[in-house]
Amino acid sequence: MSASADPRTTTATGADVRVRFCPSPTGLPHVGLIRTVLFNWAYARHHGGKLVFRIEDTDAARDSEESYQQLLEALRWLNIDWDEGVEVGGPHAPYRQSQRHEIYREVLQKLVDAGAVYESYSTAEEIDARNEANGRAKQLGYDNFDRDLTEEQRVAYRAEGRQPAWRLRVPDEDLTYVDLIRGEVTFPAGSFPDFVLVRAGGVPLYPFVNPVDDALMGITHVIRGEDLMPSTARQLALYRALVEAGVTSFIPRFAHMPLVLGDTGNKKLSKRDPKADLFLQRERGFIPEGLLNYLALLGWSIAPDRDVFSLEELTAAFDIRDVNPNPARFDQKKAEAINGDHIRMLPPEVFAERIVPYLQGAGVVDAPPTGEQARLLRAAAPLIQERLPLLGDAPGLLGFLFTDSVSYEDDAIASLPANADEVIVASVAALEELPAPEFTAAAIQEALVSALIDGLGLKPRIAYGPLRVAVSGRRISPPLFESLELLGKDATLRRLTGFVNR
C-alpha cells in the first residue's frame, strides 16, 4: 500500500474478505450489472470470503417490487449465490435501505457528536448568488458558507422556518487511495466542497447511506464500475469521519472495473440496447455457463491464449488486480461463440433437457412432451448439439422432425439448383429399395451416394441440398442421413414426393 494512502485502510485477505452487491431495483437486470456481481462473487469465492447482497431501494419513484423479483430470478438462473443479505438474512439485517432509516439516524448523531458534520441552511439560489458576487463559477457549487455559522445565525435561520441539511466537513487535504485495478489515485485538497449527507427534513442521500451500510456490514473491498469512481473521493472523506466517530475501524479497498462499450464507438453499452438485456439474452438461448464465461472476459482473462473456462476455474484463478482498466467491448458474436462452446460441453441428456423449454415455446413439442416426442428428442438432440450457438436455434433446426407439415423458407428455395427435381426423383427411387427395418443412416448414405454421386455424377453439395430442403424446408438442418433415419422411410418418401409435386 502506498505510504500516502490512509493507514487505516483494510489489509483483509482470505476468509476476512467481505464484498457486496447493492443494486437499485429499477428496470430489468442488464449484463453490466451482472458483470459487477460476477466479479464480486468470484473474488469472494476465490478468497473464501463472503458476498453480501443488499438492496438500495430508497427511491420510491423508481424502485419496484417487480424489479426486485427479477434481480432474484436473474441471480438464481445464473447460479450466483450469496452468504448474507436479502432472502437469506444475516447479522447485519435488514438488508434493504428502506428499512434502515433508524440506523442512519443513529449514525448521523454519532457524526454530529464527533463534529464531523454541520447544519447547512443555504438554498441553491443563495449559493448561486454568493458565487456570482464573489466572481466564483456557479459550476463550483457550494462554497462551505455554513461551515462556520454561529449559534445565533443558526437560531435565526430556524426562526425563519428553515430546516437544516447536514453536510460533511471535508478534510482540507489531499485524499489518496490505491485502486486495486488502476493504482494510486489522489484527489487534491479543495477538489470538492462539503457535501450533503442528509437533506432538510431528514432524508438520507446515497453518498451517506451507501458508505454507512458498507461500514456497518464490514465490507472490506468495494468492487464496482468505473462510472462510480468520481464518488470515491466523497466516500473516502466520509469514511475518515466514520472511523473517527467509532462507527467502523477501517477503510475498505476500492476497485473500479472498466466500462463495457457497445459494438461500435466509445459509448457505454446502453441499458436500452437489446444486447444489455439479460433476459433477452436468455430468451435467445444463452446458458448461464456461457454467458458468465463471456462476461468474465469483459476486463479479465484466465490466460492469454484461452477464452473458455468453467465457473470453478474462474473462481480458482480470479484476482481483481488482474482486471484490465481499459474499456471492454461487448461483442455479441464472440459471446455466442463462447456460449456454443459451453453448449457442446453439456452432457447430452442435460442438453436435451435444456432445449425443451425453447421447443415448447415454439409449439414444437407439448408441455410436457409426449412419450414419442421425448424419444425423438433424445435421439435428435445430439445431432445439433455440436453446431448450436444458442438454445433458441433448436426449434428451427429440429421442428421439422415433429410435424408432418413442412413449410419451405424462401432462402432455401432460392438455393436450389436447376436439377433439384431430378435429384429428388433419383433419391426416391434409391430409397424405395431399402426395407423399412434397414432404413438407417449408414444404409441411406450408401444408397444416395450410389444414386447421386456415382449415378448422376453430382458433387455432395449439389446432391444433398435439394434433399435437405425437401424434408426440412430449410437450407440448414441437422445431419441429413441421421435426420432421414429419424423421420423413417414412409415420412421421408412422402416429403420427397410431396416436394416434387408441390
From TrEMBL:
<keyword id="KW-0436">Ligase</keyword>
<feature type="domain" description="Glutamyl/glutaminyl-tRNA synthetase class Ib catalytic">
    <location>
        <begin position="17"/>
        <end position="334"/>
    </location>
</feature>
<feature type="binding site">
    <location>
        <position position="271"/>
    </location>
    <ligand>
        <name>ATP</name>
    </ligand>
</feature>
<dbReference type="InterPro" id="IPR033910">
    <property type="entry name" value="GluRS_core"/>
</dbReference>
<feature type="domain" description="Aminoacyl-tRNA synthetase class I anticodon-binding">
    <location>
        <begin position="351"/>
        <end position="497"/>
    </location>
</feature>
<comment type="subunit">
    <text>Monomer.</text>
</comment>
<keyword id="KW-0648">Protein biosynthesis</keyword>
<dbReference type="InterPro" id="IPR020751">
    <property type="entry name" value="aa-tRNA-synth_I_codon-bd_sub2"/>
</dbReference>
<dbReference type="GO" id="GO:0004818">
    <property type="term" value="F:glutamate-tRNA ligase activity"/>
</dbReference>
<comment type="function">
    <text>Catalyzes the attachment of glutamate to tRNA(Glu) in a two-step reaction: glutamate is first activated by ATP to form Glu-AMP and then transferred to the acceptor end of tRNA(Glu).</text>
</comment>
<dbReference type="Pfam" id="PF00749">
    <property type="entry name" value="tRNA-synt_1c"/>
</dbReference>
<protein>
    <recommendedName>
        <fullName>Glutamate--tRNA ligase</fullName>
        <ecNumber>6.1.1.17</ecNumber>
    </recommendedName>
</protein>
<keyword id="KW-0067">ATP-binding</keyword>
<dbReference type="InterPro" id="IPR020752">
    <property type="entry name" value="Glu-tRNA-synth_I_codon-bd_sub1"/>
</dbReference>
<feature type="short sequence motif" description="'HIGH' region">
    <location>
        <begin position="23"/>
        <end position="33"/>
    </location>
</feature>
<keyword id="KW-0963">Cytoplasm</keyword>
<dbReference type="InterPro" id="IPR004527">
    <property type="entry name" value="Glu-tRNA-ligase_bac/mito"/>
</dbReference>
<dbReference type="InterPro" id="IPR045462">
    <property type="entry name" value="aa-tRNA-synth_I_cd-bd"/>
</dbReference>
<feature type="short sequence motif" description="'KMSKS' region">
    <location>
        <begin position="268"/>
        <end position="272"/>
    </location>
</feature>
<dbReference type="InterPro" id="IPR049940">
    <property type="entry name" value="GluQ/Sye"/>
</dbReference>
<dbReference type="Pfam" id="PF19269">
    <property type="entry name" value="Anticodon_2"/>
</dbReference>
<keyword id="KW-0030">Aminoacyl-tRNA synthetase</keyword>
<dbReference type="InterPro" id="IPR000924">
    <property type="entry name" value="Glu/Gln-tRNA-synth"/>
</dbReference>
<comment type="similarity">
    <text>Belongs to the class-I aminoacyl-tRNA synthetase family. Glutamate--tRNA ligase type 1 subfamily.</text>
</comment>
<dbReference type="InterPro" id="IPR020058">
    <property type="entry name" value="Glu/Gln-tRNA-synth_Ib_cat-dom"/>
</dbReference>
<dbReference type="InterPro" id="IPR020061">
    <property type="entry name" value="Glu_tRNA_lig_a-bdl"/>
</dbReference>
<dbReference type="InterPro" id="IPR008925">
    <property type="entry name" value="aa_tRNA-synth_I_cd-bd_sf"/>
</dbReference>
<dbReference type="InterPro" id="IPR014729">
    <property type="entry name" value="Rossmann-like_a/b/a_fold"/>
</dbReference>
<keyword id="KW-0547">Nucleotide-binding</keyword>
